[in-house]
Design brief:
It holds the Pfam family Lipocalin. GO terms for molecular function: lipid binding. Belongs to the calycin superfamily. Fatty-acid binding protein (FABP) family. Residues 7-133 form the Lipocalin/cytosolic fatty-acid binding domain. The chain has 133 residues and is of the alpha+beta class. The protein has a single domain (2-132), classed as Calycin beta-barrel core domain (Lipocalin), CATH 2.40.128. Helix content is 15%, strand content 56%. The chain has helices spanning 16-26, 30-38; strands at residues 7-14, 42-48, 51-57, 62-67, 73-76, 82-90, 93-100, 103-112, 115-122, 125-132. It has a 10-stranded antiparallel sheet with strand order 4-3-2-1-10-9-8-7-6-5. Strand 9 (115-122) and strand 10 (125-132) form a beta hairpin. Helix 1 runs antiparallel to helix 2 (30-38). The longest helix has 11 residues, at 16-26. The chain starts with 6 loop residues before the first strand and ends with a strand. The structure holds decanoic acid. The site of decanoic acid has 14 residues, from helix 2 and strand 9.
């Protein structure tokens, strides 16, 4: 199951309007939202033993998280939020949950038809970003 995710993925399709709405829901300011929506991104997912790494690279920012499934850790996000994050793998979906200041966002990653589908959810805002190999 894990091997489905591993390797490098390149952003193929992103709804900029919905990504902007998602970032607004996170509390990201105007200038950062514009920069983040304008750029493409690569995601590299690797697994060593039971430690997963997800590295997201773009001309806007490069950041990575390292985690064990089900174990909460402190994450400083690309937009500088300090959050408590837990990642689980449920029925083939990698689910990243971030909690901070009474808010929660979920980022789901699943491989469908050879593409990495990233669904970012906050409140009733749902933004889908599609990556290809
Ligand atoms: C993705 O991997 C999007 C994941 C959500 C990133 C939110 C933080 C953005 C910082 C401006 O395609």
């Amino acid at each position: 199951m894990a091997e489905l995710y591993l390797g490098k993925w390149k952003l193929e399709d992103a709804n900029k309007e919905m990504f902007n709405a998602y970032l607004e829901g996170l509390g990201v300011g105007f200038v950062t939202r514009k920069a983040a929506c304008a750029v493409s991104a690569d995601v590299t997912i690797s697994l060593e033993g039971d430690i997963w790494t997800i590295k997201t690279s773009s001309t806007f920012k490069t950041y990575e998280i390292k985690f064990k499934l089900g174990i909460q850790f402190d994450e400083e996000t690309a937009d500088d939020r300090k959050v408590k994050t837990t990642v689980t793998l449920d029925k083939g979906v990698l689910i990243q949950e971030q909690k901070w200041d009474g808010k929660t966002t979920t980022i789901k990653r699943e491989v469908i038809d050879g593409k990495l589908i990233v669904t970012c959810i906050i409140g009733d805002v749902v933004c889908v970003r599609t990556y290809k190999r």
